[in-house]
Amino acid sequence: MSLVRIACLLLWYLQTVVVGEELAQPQDVTLITMNTNYTLSWDWPQRSADSPAVTFTTQYVGKYQLRNWKKSPNWSTVCNESPLKSCDLTAVGLHYLAMYVLRVRANTKERHSVWVHKEFCPDKDAALGPPVKVNLALDESNIEISISEPVTSANTPMRNIVPTLRYNVIYWERSADTQTKMLTTDTSLVYLPNLKAWTWYCVSIQSRYDFYNKSSILTPPQCIQTEGNILWWQIFLYFLASLAICFLVVLLSVFMSFWCYRIIKATFFPSDQLPQHLKKYLCSSPGSDVPGLLTPDQECELLCKSVSISAIPTVLEIFSPPPEALPTTSLEPNSRQSHEKSSTSRDSGVFSREGSTSVQQSSSSQFYRGAKDFGWSPFDLEQVSMQSMAPGLKCQPLNADEGIVDMCV
User: Fold this and answer.
1) pLDDT digits (tens, 9 = 90+) for 204-214
2) Is the pLDDT of residue 169 over 70?
3) Closest CA to 142 of 183, 114, 179, 178
4) Most CB contacts within 10 A, which of 77, 96, 252, 350?
């Protein structure tokens, strides 16, 4: 035996001298697990010369195979020369109640490190996950909790592989300085009895495996308010509150209606009234403020007045031309006398006034004689004089026999 050992040591020394320094091995080999999801992770000291070309190989074998000295174990490779510093073992399908040995080493093109071993028993070492979902419901003053069990990587319930799975139900009142209470159950439907009415309660649940004393993390808290019978003073209080709200709504409606009425009245029916002397002309009936439309006949009656036209101012405005400007015609004495008589009779009714002198009469008679020679009548001369005095007047033809006529102004 001593010779054999010496030979082995000699061979190892020669291998060390020829190959050189061994490659650094992976460090801090750990397992990241949740239910049946397993990932082997490690660290490796990086070196500037070796790190770009370093790869890692991961293998596993059942622990029972290592106990058989007569037969070498059959290692199964999961990740072969992978550049990653982790290896996912979930797809391998490791049995939950079996025990395995995992190993990993670093590789280069020419060298490799020694293997780093890690024992793994999923039933003992794998972490337990919390319930997938928690639902809260009310049953009067009780709370009904529905728990969805944690699932495996194949989306099957964990209870299939862990029959003794249980749950810790932790609940408390949602108020300051309240103590938590815990209820342990192995069913997925839980009732929380003897709770206060109209009180908020929060619930959080974790999975539990008593054989290896494993428990999951707590689920996020969920809160719900319990119900109960309404007390008489609460009913009375609600009635008073509703009555006050209705009163305020009615009062506000009345105020808004009155405000709108005042605005409409001030806009369409102002307080300033028409004068009385305009109402009798513009309004449809006496005592009414509603204006009425006027017909053309009514407009003429309202806008026309009895106007007295006197020819005396007209005579003052007429300019008498000199005798040489008038044409000389030979008239018979009889016709001239008749014309003078007719003109004198007309002048006495239209052109005469108190205090007029004989010079004015003679000048007017001479003017009319000259106008007659040109074919003008006394009425035409009066009409032209009035139009020249007031060109804006609208009047009807004057009657030579009448001294007073109606005129629209």
Assistant:
1) 999 999 999 99
2) yes
3) 183
4) 350
